[in-house]
Amino acid sequence: MSVLQVKGLVKDFALRTGGRRRLLRAVDELSFELTAGTTVALVGESGSGKSTVARMLAQLVRPSAGTISLDGEPIRTRGRGLRRYREDVQMVFQDPFGSLNPFHTVDHHLRRPLRVHRRAENRADEDRQIERLLERVNLTPAAVVAAKRPHELSGGQRQRVAIARALAPAPRVLLADEPVSMLDVSIRLEILNLIDRLKQEDALAVLYITHDLATARHFSRRIMVMYRGELVESGDADDVILRPRHPYTRLLAAAAPDPNRRLGVDGATVAPPTVPRPGPVEPQVAAVADQASGCRFRARCPAAMAACAARPPLLPVADGHDVRCWLYRDGTDS
Ligand code: SF4
Fold this sequence. Notes:
Helices cover 30% and strands 25% of the residues. By secondary structure, it is an alpha/beta fold. The strands form 2 sheets. Strands 6-7-8-3-9-10-13-12 form an 8-stranded mixed sheet, with helices on both faces. It has one domain (2-328): P-loop containing nucleotide triphosphate hydrolases (Rossmann fold), CATH 3.40.50. The two termini are 34 Å apart. It has helices at 50-57, 79-88, 106-116, 123-136, 142-146, 155-167, 185-202, 213-219, 237-242, 247-255, and strands spanning 2-17, 20-35, 39-43, 65-70, 73-74, 89-92, 173-177, 205-210, 222-227, 230-236, 286-287, 315-318, 321-323. Helix 3 (106-116) crosses helix 4 (123-136) and helix 6 (155-167) packs parallel to helix 7. It contains 10 helices and 13 strands. A hairpin with a 2-residue loop joins strand 1 (2-17) and strand 2 (20-35). It binds iron/sulfur cluster. The site of iron/sulfur cluster has 13 residues, from loops.
């Protein structure tokens, strides 16, 4: 069941350089849906616009254009409507150190959303819910953990508290913005497994934002790849990773450590090894004035051709699999 619908989402940021005002397009006409009990991964390099997408969905940043709908109803950005939306759509931030207030206890961090969203009948009910939230994220004994302040916890424990806080209003959508990128490698999998378990238990619609294709494939049903604010490829997670079509996705797939690649898991077709090397590093955000000037990847793309001077649309290459590249203009793999 579709829970959150995003259509034509755009975000422009104004930038002043040398006395001139320029608009930088961080997100360009992005459309997708999140469904209950399903994880969708949004993948891309730093600066590709993926975190801006999460912030718009969390209503921390106002979109320049486009619509965000919950259960088919465009969301309200003020008053009671906004509070109800925030109850349904919660976010886990990348930085478990900065997202918790160092002056407050874990108990305070969990009690506050219960009160703001009126989830408890009285203080005893709040206490019970706090205990339950901590148990759900495997922070026990709950009474001991609740009395601690963030500096008394490890990075992984802080992220568990942040996840428990996100669960407090009983949301239906969880936006996980690089939730493990600042944690030790040894505990990343534990946190991702925790989010996956909670997704199943609560039928959460999860948007998993990451630059890590391997975990995106493992934990997600669909993968969307962004480059310079644009969606360049989206489809079934296995199909995108094992048969990446867009030259940029091929670069990402080739760079991702994957012990199965050489083995050809289940006889699946593996991405061709002739993946081009990336071109020079370039600014990742596109100036609005550059938008119409063709494919944004063409400066780095070894397959660039004359047609690439025009901006490619998203083209279907398989059932539910779209690619923004002129190589697929006839609808088949080139
Ligand atoms: Fe490369 Fe052209 Fe495809 Fe862009 S449209 S990715 S430049 S082949």
